Amino acid sequence: MSDLILRNCRVRGESQPVDIAITGAFIDAIAPNLPQQGVREIDCSGKLVTPPFVESHIHLDSVLAAGQPRFNESGTLFEGIQIWGERKPSLTHEDVQQRALAALKLMAAHGCLYVRTHVDVTEPRLIALDALLELREQVRDWMTLQIVAFPQDGMYSRKDNEALLEEAMRRGADVVGGIPHYELTREDGVRSVQHAFDLAERYDRLIDIHCDEVDDDQSRFVEVIVAEAIKRGHGERVAASHTTAFGSYNDSYAYKLLGFIRRSNVNFIANPLINITLQGRMDTYPKRRGLTRIKELWQQGANVSLGQDCIYDPWYIFGTGSMIGVAHMTVHVSQMTGLQEIDACFDMISVNGAKSLQIQDYGLKVGNPANIVVLDAPDAFSALRYQTIPLYTIARGRVIASNTPAQMQVDIS
Ligand SMILES: [Zn+2]
């Protein structure tokens, strides 16, 4: 007798439907027509059953804060930073936790159970960091939350920032962040990347650097990250986020860089919802897309995963918590409309994200935690085409969210 059995599940890579049996918090069998009974059984009717989605890049300290104290009318990065600067002094522990928890619940209902959040550690009280470190423990039995210590204003732009970053590592941040393109000089930017690698080695943590999130074709810090990863030899523990300037580099430089990237094993994290709206704002026409070269990175065999970056905050007015929505946007803005390419975009919100976050027990396998999503679609293509909402989200063997799909009726004879 199992606690829960999902019957008739379509699983990517399997030629025929399977049943999945769960006991306690773990998967204990996967096979067609399992003979055992379950205390509870769900008939999945041939729908796609997948491991949960992975949010590779979000800022939970600023989610759900749009309009506080005012809306971003110009839509620019700079007005967003200005508004956030006005909001920051009124941040409290409870305020950060409430908004972050609401966003995590939204994401769980959309089938996402692994989240990497950046948190601004240039705020001297480290209020948001402490709030999210505590929340990470509170949600542990249904959500895996990774926290990146992110020096939003630059590591070297104010004298306390370097020490605040290290303090964040001491307090338990999982990942070292950085923002080299926003340091005062190119030299400071290079130094900040090297320092992030040093800290990661000293505290045995991962690395995820906001890198080249500008339209400036001379912003070239991906090469610094890649060089450090090649020399130090642990590129799979490193991620370069945004890298939008990559879309503006000349092809000769870009293709040379792609070769180095391949050697480095560095993960790339793109945020197409926000960057298609935020970048290219200084251009008239032709107006650049302001996105990293997602398709070319994928073609070169680099690991690419995706994030929302923002949900209803001073930089991005939309956002639902849906990673399927992010993949849907990626198909469009990266022109990945071939069938294999669409499938690759589904990978970017699932298995590739798990690789970026270095999740060791991810996937539908016997012995793994029973983290499972049942989608209202027969396959990944249809899930993206219809931007499906999951029927069930199961975390550690427990059904924690369900949705009833809307019924469309057409009465035209
Ligand atoms: Zn970001």
Protein traits:
single chain; 413 residues; alpha/beta; Urease, subunit C, domain 1; TIM Barrel; 2 domains; 4-stranded mixed sheet; 13 helices; globular; binds zinc ion
Could you please describe the fold and organization of this structure?
The protein is an alpha/beta fold and 413 residues long. The protein folds into 2 domains: 2-51 and 363-402, Urease, subunit C, domain 1 (Roll); 53-356, TIM Barrel (Alpha-Beta Barrel), CATH 3.20.20.140. 34% of the residues lie in helices and 21% in strands. It has helices spanning 77-87, 93-109, 127-138, 161-171, 186-203, 222-232, 251-264, 272-278, 294-299, 323-333, 339-348, 351-356, 380-385; strands at residues 2-9, 18-23, 26-31, 38-43, 49-50, 53-58, 112-120, 144-150, 175-176, 206-211, 238-242, 267-270, 304-306, 372-375, 390-395, 398-402. It has an 8-stranded parallel sheet with strand order 6-7-8-9-10-11-12-13. The protein is globular. The structure holds zinc ion. Zinc ion is lined by residues 57, 59, 118, 210, 241, 309.
